Structures are given as C-alpha cells and as structure tokens.
C-alpha cells in the first residue's frame, strides 16, 4: 500500500482519486485537516476499502512509527505542507513547523521502518517528496527555464521552507541510502483548488460580483499545469524514477497573471453571463456587463517573484511524461467544475476563510 500525506488537500486529493481510479492498491491517507484539508474532496471514495483516512500531524513521530509498523507501506508520497505564499508572509512559523520539521519527522520514521526491511523490500521502497519550482527563486524575462541543476534561491518563507525539506530529502538519500525521489512542479490549477489561490479566488469572487485583486502590474509570470497532469507525472516518477533523482514537472504554459484573470473572465462571460445571472458589482450595486469590470489592481506582494518557468524535458526524455491538457482545455474544465460545484465552494467559505480574506485584502490599496 501507499502512505500518502496531505491527501485531503488540493493536489493530494486529486492524486488519491486518480490513484484509486487507475489501480487497486490501497492508500493510507494521513492528513491533519488544517484549513486547507477537506474530506469532501474524497466523498466519492466514502466506504471504499481502498482508501483509509487517518487524521493526524506529520510532526507526530509516535503516530508515524505506529502507521509504518501497522500498515507496512511500500512507498510514501508526501504532499502535506503549508502551501500558500501570502500566508507564509503573514505567519511563517507554521511553514517551518510543517514543511521542515514535519518532513524531517516523516523522513526519520520512514528511515526507521525502512532500515528493518529485508534487502529486496529495502530496494523496492520509495519516498516521493512533492515539491515546487519556487525553490529556484525568480527568473528574468530572457532567462532559461528552471532545470534540475538550477541552484536553489528561494525568496519567500514558503519557498525557503520547501527548499529546506528538499535538502533534507536529498541528505537522507545521500547519507542513509533511503530511496527518495523529488518532484519540483510549477503552479497547479483544477478541481478542489482552495479559493485563496489565484485562479479559484478569481472565479469565486467574479461569481459573487466582488473585486478581482491583481497584485501590482499583473505582469508576473507563472507556468501553469492542470492538476491531473501533475498527478500523472507523480505516478510515473513513483513507477520508474531513479532513486536519488529530482524531476521538474511543468506545463509549458507561461502566462502573465493579468492574462490568466482575463481568460477566466472571458470564460465566465461565455459560461455564466453576468447579466443573465443578475450579477451586480458588490461595491457599487450596479449590474455587471462583463466580469473583467471587476479587475482591480492592488498593492503588490512583498518580495513577489517575477517569473517562474519549468524545463520539464528530463521527465519527458527519461520517463516519457508530457502533459495531456493545454492551458485552454484545462482552464475551461476548471471554470466548468467551479460552476458545477458551487456547494463545495460555499462549504469551504467558512468563518476562518472569511477572516483570511479580511486580513489579506482588507488593508490592501
Ligand atoms: P494544500 O494546502 O491544498 O494541501 C495541503 C494538505 O496538507 C492539506 O490537506 C492539509 O490539511 C495538510 N497538512 C498541512 N499541514 C499538515 C501537517 N502538519 N500534518 C499533516 N497534514 C498536514 O496544498 P497543495 O496545493 O495540494 O500542495 C500539495 C503539495 O504540493 C505541497 O507540498 C506543495 O508544496 C506542493 N506543490 C503545490 C503546487 C501548487 O500549485 N499548489 C505546486 C507545486 C508543488
Ligand atoms: P498563487 O495562486 O498564490 O500561487 P504562487 O504565489 O504560489 O505562485 O499566486 C499566483 C500568482 O497570482 C502570484 O504571482 C500572485 C498572484 N496573485 C494575485 O495577483 N492576486 C491574488 O489575489 C492572489 C491570491 C495571487
């Protein structure tokens, strides 16, 4: 069986759903259910013997040791993390706790368990660490995309804590021989994305007639990947990746934020026309013609990385992975998913979500 951490979050839940659709192998899903964890994402697996859920913290060594001893996983796929850059700016400590200390404790528990395996099981064991392209820092407009050999230069508390976890994973392979794999992926989007991140925030704000807050000039570039493509890449790396290697995962979709927001607005104009739905501007109360009327430039994020771009050629060359979705197909599916799942959105917009929106955007010019 697989031990998946963070499998109730955005990417983790997409991974668990995809895994269960493609294989019969059971999944033990360990998740603390922070604000970002949501068991509703896994509702379609309710009652399935293939999926076992444990609510717990990756910093809890006693729990980890017990889970390894009882369930004897053949592999760990480690998603659990604090993942939002803006939250890391306002409160970095949780990022060090979960991303650095938590990954360390998970590595220690995995090493203890793995050390006691026979030689064949030891060789077959895998610890797959899911990381981000943000560890490489920021690119200028004409710089080549990040490759696996680009030096680490993290700029936010989030990316620094992920870089710290990547270094620990590397050290456990180098020092103890633990068979690790690391994936560094670009920005994901798709179903079950918590609406604090750019794309889902813009969709849910637009449908409510609320401002669409674009940081600074909106010319920052991200390289977008549909979440199911990321999950397929992780399955491929788990299956055929070389222990000790890192693999960059990206969508070959560099886009400026303002263009992403314009695209979301155009899709909503097509699929959920504002006048037809009676959507009004939440500030002025005036009937809304086009969703793009809601775009509002606000104060930039401190230390905002200007451009990320991933060179995913190693993964294609060595393991034959390429994304299946283009940005155009993936973003259309995503907008359609949010329109069809407004109950899911309403359920995650609880009191703590509203507090976050007030803290983050309330004082922004
Ligand atoms: P997310 O914030 O949606 O989900 C994180 C999950 O981890 C949640 O279910 C949360 O409850 C759980 N968690 C948090 N702290 C925990 C702890 N101490 N113990 C146990 N569980 C805990 O994040 P995501 O966007 O799904 O990202 C998953 C992983 O992928 C992260 O490691 C992130 O760094 C990485 N990643 C994300 C992106 C992206 O665009 N979202 C891109 C590249 C890499
Ligand atoms: P985000 O989804 O937070 O991902 P990351 O910071 O990990 O790349 O943000 C994506 C981009 O969108 C980033 O350049 C910041 C920008 N952004 C806004 O302009 N407005 C917003 O309200 C948010 C949440 C993000």
Automatic annotation (TrEMBL):
Its cofactor is NAD(+). It is an enzyme of class 4 (lyase). One of its GO terms (molecular function) is dTDP-glucose 4,6-dehydratase activity. It comes from the Bacteria. Keywords: Lyase, NAD. Residues 3-334 form the NAD(P)-binding domain. Pfam families: GDP_Man_Dehyd. Its EC number is 4.2.1.46. It catalyses: dTDP-alpha-D-glucose = dTDP-4-dehydro-6-deoxy-alpha-D-glucose + H2O. PANTHER family: DTDP-D-GLUCOSE 4,6-DEHYDRATASE-RELATED. NCBIfam families: dTDP_gluc_dehyt. Belongs to the NAD(P)-dependent epimerase/dehydratase family. dTDP-glucose dehydratase subfamily. This is dTDP-glucose 4,6-dehydratase.
């Amino acid at each position: 069986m697989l031990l998946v951490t963070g499998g109730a979050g955005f990417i983790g839940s997409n991974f668990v759903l995809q895994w269960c659709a493609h294989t019969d192998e059971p999944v033990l899903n360990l998740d603390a259910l922070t604000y970002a964890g949501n068991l509703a994402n896994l509702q379609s697996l309710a009652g399935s013997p293939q999926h076992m859920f444990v609510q717990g913290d990756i910093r809890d060594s006693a729990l980890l040791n017990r889970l390894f001893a009882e369930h004897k996983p053949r592999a760990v796929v480690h998603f659990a993390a604090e993942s939002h850059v803006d939250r890391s700016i306002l409160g970095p400590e949780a990022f060090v706790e979960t991303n650095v200390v938590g990954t360390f404790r998970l590595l220690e528990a995995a090493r203890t368990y793995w050390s006691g395996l026979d030689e064949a099981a030891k060789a077959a064991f895998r610890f797959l660490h899911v990381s981000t392209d943000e560890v490489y820092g920021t690119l200028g407009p004409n710089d080549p995309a990040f490759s696996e050999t680009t030096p680490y230069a993290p700029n936010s508390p989030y990316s620094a804590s992920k870089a710290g976890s990547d270094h620990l994973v590397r050290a456990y392979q180098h020092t103890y021989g633990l068979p690790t794999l690391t994936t560094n992926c670009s920005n994901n989007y798709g179903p079950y994305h918590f609406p604090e991140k750019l794309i889902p925030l813009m969709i849910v704000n637009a449908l409510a007639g609320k401002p669409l807050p674009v940081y600074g000039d909106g010319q920052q570039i991200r390289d977008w990947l549909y979440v199911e493509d990321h999950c397929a890449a992780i399955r491929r790396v788990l299956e055929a990746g070389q222990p000790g290697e890192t693999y960059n995962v990206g969508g070959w979709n560099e886009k400026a934020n303002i263009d992403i927001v314009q695209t979301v607005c155009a899709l909503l104009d097509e699929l959920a026309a504002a006048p037809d739905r009676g959507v009004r501007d939440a500030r002025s109360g005036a009937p809304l013609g086009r969703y793009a009327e809601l775009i509002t430039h606000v104060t930039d994020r401190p230390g905002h990385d200007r451009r990320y771009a991933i060179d995913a050629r190693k993964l294609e060359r060595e393991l034959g992975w390429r994304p299946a979705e283009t940005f155009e197909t993936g973003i259309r599916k995503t907008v359609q998913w949010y329109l069809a799942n407004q109950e899911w959105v309403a359920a995650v917009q609880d009191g703590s979500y509203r507090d976050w929106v007030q803290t983050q955007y309330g004082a922004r010019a």
